[in-house]
Amino acid sequence: MIERVHLSIDGAVATITNDNPDKHNAFDDDMDLRLFEILTELKQHPEVRAVIWRGEGRSFSSGRDVGSIGNLKVELSHHELMRRGHRGIQQLWELDAVVIAACKGWVMGGSFQRALLCDLRVASEDAKFRLPETTYGVIPDTGGVAVLYEMCGHGVVSDMVLTGRVLTADEALTHGIVSRVVPADELDATVREIAEQIAAAPAVTIKMAREVIRHLALPQIRSSMADEVIYQTFINRSDDIAEMKAAREAERAPRYTGS
Length: 259
Description:
By secondary structure, this protein is an alpha/beta fold.
């Protein structure tokens, strides 16, 4: 099988690369599992002090590969699938290394939310951020809404989640979603410079500083993710979702009841 998520380690800096460029690095189940394996592997490398997470090609990631939905290679209930995804990505919080997301092109859906769970986000000028889940009849379910709420407040989160609007890199900087915006051809060099600066600092200092920040942020994020498992599972079994699928199959307007 061709791996479409790669790990490389260069001294104290590791790099995770999303490598499905023909689909703007959209994730399917195999890519999810490889990402979770890489996070597990990184926990066994104490020499790694900073991790860069980037995308090959034009985008960081356009989220879920819609064509892969419903094509799981293992039998898992919707609830179990979500729990596996949450446990997998929450390994980010178990790393002693700082994780920096290099955001370019499309940063969308679950991949946008995963980037929000990282320590830092740096964007290229062409980056576009979006949470399109409600347009597919579901809700964001990877913890990102809790992070956005802390960063932006009620209004921006509601606009992004309920309308699926696209946020530009400059808007993301204004709202604190990213810490820097740089020209596209400088993105990789900038995140590498940040990673090397962090890796050169005293390890215990960085570790304790991150613990302070995590104690402020993680309880709310964990609580939100627990809610997401319950509500997304309910939506998956709801009358409205069944009606949405039936209406699309019959090429007619849906008649939603809110149940």
